[in-house]
């Protein structure tokens, strides 16, 4: 099972799903929306109750949008229960030789952590 209700994600452990996220970031003092560029990245994270990152993915954006795909292995090892998720935006990201983000001109965190509920798997295929 996979569902998104507003900002709440519900997912059965080990299931798949996808959701499109549109980045709406307003430039302070101008009221204008920021258009993400070629070197900007979105960081999607799932965290446990203590705030430790359990899963993180980096996305480039097209027209201020990106799609988060959950694969079976992403949550297969998580215990059922409550988690949080968030998205941070790295403006003009700097990368190391392996392509990992090491810094950026600015990191934007537009919301507080949001809810994700991981359900127990019922039955096997």
Written account of the structure:
The chain is mainly beta and 125 residues long. The chain has one domain (2-119): Immunoglobulins (Immunoglobulin-like, Sandwich). Helices cover 3% and strands 51% of the residues. It has 1 helix and 9 strands. The protein has one helix spanning 72-75, and strands at residues 2-5, 8-12, 17-22, 41-47, 53-59, 65-70, 81-95, 101-108, 114-119. The strands form 2 sheets. Strands 1, 2, 4, 5, 7, 8 and 9 form a 7-stranded mixed beta sheet that branches. Strands 3-6 form a two-stranded antiparallel ribbon. Strand 4 and strand 5 (53-59) form a beta hairpin. The chain is globular and about 50 Å long. The mean pLDDT is 91.
The tally of beta strands, per DSSP, is: 9
CATH architectural name? Sandwich
- The global form is globular
- Helical fraction equals under 10%
- From the N-terminal CA to the C-terminal CA, the straight-line distance is 14 Å
Task: Tell me the CATH topology.
Answer: Immunoglobulin-like
Number of H/I helices = 1
Percent strand equals over 45%
Gyration radius, rounded: 16 Å
Mean pLDDT: 91
Secondary-structure element pattern, one letter each? EEEEEEHEEE
CATH class: Mainly Beta
Residue runs with pLDDT of under 50 for 5 or more positions: none
What's the structural domain tally? 1
CATH superfamily: Immunoglobulins
Q: What oligomeric arrangement do these chains adopt?
A: single chain
């Amino acid at each position: 099972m996979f569902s998104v209700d507003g900002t709440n994600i519900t997912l059965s452990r080990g299931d798949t799903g996808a959701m499109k996220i549109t980045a709406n970031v307003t430039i302070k003092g101008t009221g204008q929306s920021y258009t993400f560029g070629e070197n900007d990245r979105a960081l999607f994270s799932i965290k446990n109750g203590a705030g430790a990152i359990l899963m993180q993915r980096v996305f480039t954006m097209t027209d201020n949008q990106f799609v988060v795909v959950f694969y079976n292995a992403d949550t297969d090892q998580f215990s059922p229960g409550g988690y949080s998720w968030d998205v941070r935006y790295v403006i003009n990201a700097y990368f190391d030789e392996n392509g990992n983000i090491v810094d950026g001109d600015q990191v934007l965190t537009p919301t507080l952590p949001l809810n994700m509920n991981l359900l127990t798997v019922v039955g096997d295929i």
